[in-house]
Structure formats: structure tokens, C-alpha cells
Input
Amino acid sequence: TQFLDISGLCARIDADGQEKEILKGVDLSIPPGEVHAIMGPNGSGKSTLSYVLAGREDYEVTAGTVNFQGKDLLEMEPEERAAAGLFLAFQSPIELPGVNNANFLRTAVNAVRRARGKDELDAVTFLKTARAAAKELSMAPDMLKRNVNVGFSGGEKKRNEVLQMTLLEPSFAILDETDSGLDVDALRIVAEGVNRLRSPSFSALVITHHQRLLDYLVPDRIHVMAKGRIIHSGGPELAQQIDREGYTRFLAEAEAA
Ligand code: ADP
Ligand code: MG
Ligand code: MG
Output
């Protein structure tokens, strides 16, 4: 068995009293140590898939299974998912005036450490680790002292998110890079953050419309999602093909099948 196995996953949302089926049988497996990307037209269900994996309550799973490291992911509370090593990047990082960034990060890290049965880190030990990680990410030293995301530039928010991911030591990260306003620097920050974590005990699922992101972060596999399903999968060369030809051919092939 694999590290992450999604099979026949269907999910819907209650939109203004109307049940709306969004995921219509997603099949996807990610082996340990691999980075996979999902691309696809707008409205395909890419973000919905990441929310369902993260355990967001407004989505109802109506069929299918998700096995994560031998456990039924769908039965786990969001905190249990985090304890088991799942990390979901926030799409629009929240600003927290009056909350010190280092304290905020330490609280998040210690919550996960407690849940994993590890000792909590004291402020001094944590700061040492956080400063070293921040330096690796070329973050300005004062970013740990500032209020969470307050007045951070887009690139600084991205770096802070990647710092958080790094410090939480996930075994599986889901990054949904929905923001079409992400500039090339931000894409590079995300890609470098993921590349730095690459190891046999780290896998990631990167959702993006940005072919550029995949230039920096060469995924092991790319999946095309459309109309609530994975309709095509291939190697990293698929990114260039999609860039040249768009999704039309895959959509037509899926219709024909
Ligand atoms: P993608 O990330 O691929 O662009 P999404 O998962 O955001 O796609 O959305 C898939 C479909 O589900 C879209 O048609 C979208 O309008 C719909 N959808 C997603 N979330 C909601 C919601 N909260 N209420 C109503 N419709 C939604
Ligand atoms: Mg979208
Ligand atoms: Mg989306």
C-alpha cells in the first residue's frame, strides 16, 4: 500500500440549500517521498479536494476512501490529521495584530509536538531553531519579532508560511497556490521551501495553475483535474504540454472514454 491513497472520493457542499456535488470520484495515490502536482481548469474541484483532505466541515464526503499512512484520514479530526503529519498551507494568511510571530509559531509547533507525544520546546530552544530556519529561508531576522503577517509583503507572508511548514515537520504537505496574483518571487519561495523539505519521509501535493511554479519545483507526477475527477496523469513534462496546448485534449479524451 501507498503513503496516501484516495479512492473514488466524492464530496458535496450545501450551497444555499442546494446540494452541489463537487468531487465526483477522485482517484489519486502518492507514494512516500514524492511530490505530486494537480493542475486543471478553474472550478475543477482542486481547492475542494484540499479542503476535504484537511477536514473542513462544510464539505460532506458521500463516497470513497482516503487512506493516510494506514489510517482512515476521513475519520480523523483536523487536529489528529496535523498530529499525523498533515500540513495544509493557508491560502490567505491571516494577520494577527498584537500577536508575536515567534510565539504564534511556537504555539503551533508545540500543539503538534504534544499531539505526537514529544516534549514541548521552551522559548529559548524554539527561538534558536526558528532563527536557523528563518535564515535558511533568507527571512529578515526581525520577522520573528513582528506581529503575525501584519504589514508583511506578499513574499514575506509566503516565506512565513513556508517557515511554519518547515518548523511543523510534516510528513505530507498540501499547498493550494490559488492566488493568481502570486508573483514569480513568491512561486520561487514556495518551490524552494518544498524542495528543501524533500526526503524519503516527506511527500507533497501542490495545487497550482502556475506552470512557472513547476519549473522550480519539478514534481514526480502531474495530475490533471477536471469536473471533479483526475482525468489524466503524467510525468513532469506534462507541465510544458499543458502550457502549449491547454486542457482541451485531455477534456475531449475524458469525454470520449
Ligand atoms: P478549483 O480550485 O479547481 O478552481 P473549487 O474546488 O474551488 O475549484 O470549486 C469547484 C466547484 O465547486 C466550483 O464550481 C465552485 O463554484 C464550487 N464551490 C466550491 N466551494 C463552494 C461553496 N462554498 N459554495 C458553492 N459552490 C462552491
Ligand atoms: Mg478556483
Ligand atoms: Mg482553487
Summary: The two ends are 27 Å apart (CA to CA). The longest strand covers residues 18-30. Residues 13, 15, 20, 22, 40, 42-48 surround adenosine-5'-diphosphate (ligand 1) (CB under 6 Å). The chain has a mean pLDDT of 91.
